[in-house]
Design a protein that fits this description.
Number of domains: 5
Largest sheet: 4 strands, parallel
CATH architecture of the largest domain: 3-Layer(aba) Sandwich
Helix content: 40-55%
CATH superfamily of the largest domain: HUPs
CATH class of the largest domain: Alpha Beta
Oligomer: single chain
Number of helices: 22
Shape: elongated
CATH topology of the largest domain: Rossmann fold
RNA sequence: GGGCCCGUAGCUCAGUCAGGUAGAGCAUCCGGCUCUUAACCGGAUGGUCGUGGGUUCAAAUCCCACCGGGCCCGCCA
């Protein structure tokens, strides 16, 4: 079987785009602000299009990459996200006019979109955000709205073939925005003056009767999608699996665009969603439902390129399940492996995968790969180290640890130190917030009889000696303390291995752990002494 | 009714598009430091690849049917 012509899935799609012979492309993605912007949302609407945009530019094409932000949408939050009373009060109102439930921003849109604006550059996203409430003011959009209203019977006919005749006669493809209360979901059209471009409406929410211009409306969403294609001249747009079903919204929109506007719809492909594993259950991420792992939350524990690598190395229709507990270290290890493969330091199990892995690595790095393989340390190792150094800000201490463990042999360049510092803080946050118990360095407060049983009489003797040693210990010299511990162990005729095992059992409840002397100093010798003292007491007097 | 995804080691998942005879991490167990721990190194244990057919020299991979889980098609990407 020839391996020539095997390409990453994204490049195969780009080949299809290039085959059209077009010189310039507009690539669009959509961003609803129904709640927090989560990492699943980024996948098909922002990250994949970013990779496509770069690939097209590399092929010499002119590319405009935009993200359409749906600010002209009504509120449709669910109770998991905001209180029932808030929903009752604001449901159906344009989110731009809904206050921030937490009171820290101008309005609903600001509250949820600000984190995106704050972080999108860190994710390497270069797409230009475009707000729909601003597009509606655009002359071309007004003309498109007018066109839709004029051709509403034709549009109804086409859509009804997909919706089972649900749209009744007299249907209008728009909802006016209520001037008085911001309702944009349930306003009723009383009259339309095509000459003046005015819609008379009644608002059931506040009772207001008024007139709306064609810039103060929202198109029914299928019509809106098509109108945006028309106005923004979109050539490429991917679509979520909800739109992908045969006879679903994308199909009907394509037909609407062809028949009504006589244009070819954008090229694209469907992509799957990302679900979130919470307490062993897997739930689809949902902005409006408040089931989310946000862009910020990811940045607190992971490198952006790691998330991007995951998305690019997986095919778009794979359903991904994100598990903050295991997934974070796992994805970082996968990324490190890809990095080694990219730089030829390791062979993948399946040689064919090299192409996908290398390309996904490039894409994850926005086609700007590091000049040489960066220093790598296992994520979970950093998580442990981060807990036993004086502070996660102290990168030098971490570097020292990594030298001790033999992970680090060469001198680090400045950018590698910066990278390590970033990852160290993230690993620390992860271990505190999500990690399973065995990654946590947790000091036992109580004397456990089962452990006492296991360490035996010699063990108790050792604990007593070490307790005495630590009770009055002064200074921060780890090497000196280590020597003392060692001599206590030897003094009792125990092997170091066994002796340390006993101490770890008593202090951490397990047979091993971080290097002991620095750990004791970090925790405080007197605290450790009192723990050991409790064991000695229980051994002497029982419970 | 139509469409999609998943089912692979105790756990979390790669591998399916481009068929070559099962992988990784974690967990468990064993061994290795004549100044100690393992977070390192080496090794082991561990899988009817959901089930049954078919195509093929060859199937986790392609085709068909079925079982189990999740989802979409009513304004959450």
């Amino acid at each position: 079987m020839s391996r020539q012509g095997i390409k990453h899935w994204l490049d195969r799609f780009v080949d299809r785009l290039l085959a059209t012979g077009k010189k310039r492309f507009v690539i669009s993605g959509g961003m609803a602000i129904s709640g927090p912007i989560h990492i699943g949302k980024l996948r098909g609407e922002v990250i994949y299009p970013s990779g496509i945009a770069r690939a097209l530019r590399r092929a010499g094409k002119e590319v405009r990459h935009i993200v359409v932000v749906y600010t002209q949408d009504p509120l449709k939050a669910k109770e998991r996200l905001v209180p029932r009373s808030f929903i009752n009060e604001w449901s159906g109102v344009r989110i731009l006019d809904v206050p921030d439930p937490w009171g820290c921003h101008e309005n609903w849109v600001e509250h949820f979109f600000e984190p995106y604006m704050k972080h999108y550059e860190e994710y390497g996203i270069t797409a230009t955000p475009i707000m729909t409430h601003e597009i509606y003011k655009d002359r071309r959009m007004v003309e498109t709205v007018r066109f839709f209203i004029k051709n509403r019977e034709r549009a109804r006919e086409i859509l009804n073939r997909y919706k089972g005749g649900k749209l009744g006669p007299g249907w209008f493809p728009v909802r006016p925005l209520c001037k008085k209360c911001g309702n944009i979901r349930t306003t009723k059209i009383l009259d339309y003056d095509g000459e003046k471009g005015l819609i008379r409406y009644m608002c059931p929410r506040c009772g207001h009767v008024g007139e709306a211009r064609l810039s103060d409306v929202k198109l029914e969403w299928r019509a809106e999608w098509v109108a945006l294609w028309n106005v923004l001249e979109v050539d490429v747009e991917l679509y979520g699996k909800d739109h992908a079903a045969a006879g679903g919204s994308r199909d009907s929109c394509n037909e609407l665009y062809r028949k009504l506007f006589g244009k070819e719809p954008p090229m694209g492909f469907p992509f799957e969603w990302v679900s979130l594993k919470v307490d062993g259950r897997s739930l689809e991420m949902s902005s409006s439902g408040g089931i989310v792992f946000t862009m910020d939350e990811w940045l607190e524990v992971g490198l952006p390129e790691v998330l991007k690598y995951w998305y690019y190395v997986m095919r778009p229709m794979s359903h991904l399940e994100f598990d903050p507990v295991h997934g974070v270290p796992h994805l970082h290890e996968e990324y490190s492996r890809a990095e080694r493969i990219y730089f030829g330091l390791e062979e993948p199990a399946d040689p064919d995968k090299i192409i996908d892995i290398r390309r996904a690595y490039e894409l994850a790095n926005d086609d700007k790969v590091p000049p040489k393989p960066p220093f790598q340390a296992p994520y979970t190792l950093l998580a442990v180290i981060s807990q036993i150094i004086p502070s996660t800000e102290n990168v030098d201490a971490a570097i020292e640890k990594l030298r001790q463990t033999g992970h680090l042999k060469d001198e680090l360049e400045e950018w590698e130190v910066a990278r390590l510092a970033r990852l160290l803080r993230k690993a620390y946050t992860w271990v505190k917030r999500y990690a399973p118990k065995h990654y946590r360095v947790e000091i036992r407060e109580e004397a456990d009889p089962a452990i006492l049983e296991r360490i035996g009489e010699d063990g108790v003797k050792l604990l007593k000696e070490v307790e005495t040693l630590l009770k009055d210990w002064e200074g921060r010299d780890a090497v000196k303390l280590e020597e003392e511990l060692y001599s206590k162990i030897r003094g009792l005729g125990l092997s170091p291995k066994k002796g340390f095992r006993i101490l770890y059992m008593a202090i951490l409840g397990r047979g091993s752990g971080p290097k002991l002397a620095p750990l004791i100093l970090a925790v405080g010798p007197r605290k450790i002494a009192s723990i050991l003292g409790r064991y000695v007491e229980v051994a002497a007097h029982g419970l």
